[in-house]
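Fig. S4 source data, part A: sequence.
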Amino acid sequence: MRLPSTPRHASRGQSARSLLLLALVCCAAPAFAQKPVYRCETAGRVSYSDAPCVGAKEIDATPTQGMDKMTGKSRKGKDVRRDEYNTALAEAIQPLTGMNADEYRVHQRRFKHSPADKLECARLDNRLPGLKTAVQAAAANDLAQAEVDLYQARKRFNDLNC
């Protein structure tokens, strides 16, 4: 027996589809976002690491993704293809979730965190830019303490895998 198509049944089907789509988004493979790279100077020696150090400078080490079809074949790695897929998915479901591609990557990365860790990551998201500007604006006598505060926040951010 077929039910008549009424607005009540149509909205129920549409909400079921929306819930199914939201469940698929939540279960999607996590995006492996690029961790920040830090340039550290210790006793005149320069080193680069994904772990923060006191007085570290954050550098942009985003790999380039162009020029992959010079031979007529796409030579993108699995991680690049996954990232492009997740970006396209995030753009497609943005009307449902309200998140842009970057916010969606953060959501995926933190999906399995405990509520307390999610809250602390959000707090660190808001705190880190202020600490970075405090280091840049610090006077010579306050610079060491500002760098230590920034290091501690970056280390906690890194330890939580935010």
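Fig. S4 source data, part B ends here. The two ends are 51 Å apart (CA to CA).
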